[in-house]
Amino acid sequence: MSPRARTSALLLAGALLVLSGCTGGGAEEEGGTSGTAASATPEAEAAADPGTASVADQVMAEQKIATPHGSDAALGGEVTVSLRAVEVAGGTTTVRWALRWDDDASPADAGASWYDMSVEPSTTVTDRAGLKAYRPFCTEGAWQEDTDDSTKAAVAQIKCRESMLVSPLEKHAFKFPNHGTIEVSAVLPAPEGEPATVDVLPAEGLPLFTDVTVTYVDGAAK
Asked: DSSP string spanning 192-207?
């Protein structure tokens, strides 16, 4: 699978219909297609725990980039992004991946948060053939609020980002350790039509993985 620039990923995801599992209504899109919305299930919440991953050593694809940085301009080294699996079962998609930060110029016990790296831990799964993109379930707010009030819609999206079924999520408190690998997972709605492959953006600010094989746990891998 070939990597693409993260800018292309964000443009593609923004151009497509985004379906979420957030509470709240889906805003109607042009052409009469509306985003669906549903409450996060207990099964989906349990699947978000990276500690239960059975594919911790599996690597479907891997990319290395210079460490992104936001608030800490001195943050250096590189990050390795490893895609573990994209599994669909029971109406949900679980994306498992890992991030390793290596910076020889920083102390061995240093840490870098999502915020430090200017990375937003919102996983996006895109079905290019079906022209649809999917984002994680969240327990509050909505990715697309059914309202004409722009302020209300913005608040709903902020709440959704803060309650995504992504682990680990804390943008400020959680730190990726220097020279350590952290397993990450996200739970999203299952893609419609059971596509054989999808594009996966593990987090906003990280590289895109294209043509990723989807494993359907309830049946054979597509």
From this structure: TT--SEEEEESSBTB-
**What string of pLDDT tens digits covers the 222 residues of the chain?**
544 444 344 334 333 444 544 433 333 333 222 233 334 554 444 444 443 334 567 899 999 999 998 755 678 999 999 999 999 999 999 999 999 999 999 999 999 999 999 999 999 999 999 999 999 999 999 998 888 889 999 999 999 999 999 999 888 789 999 999 999 999 999 999 999 999 999 999 999 999 999 999 875 444
What's the pTM value of the predicted model, to 2 decimals? 0.76
What are 90's two structure tokens?
């029971």
Q: Which two tokens stand for residue 156?
A: 């709903």
CA distances from 136 to 45, 77, 110, 144, 157 (A): 11, 29, 29, 12, 12
* Contact partners, residue 100, CB within 8 Å, separation at least 6: 79, 80, 82, 176, 179, 180, 181, 182
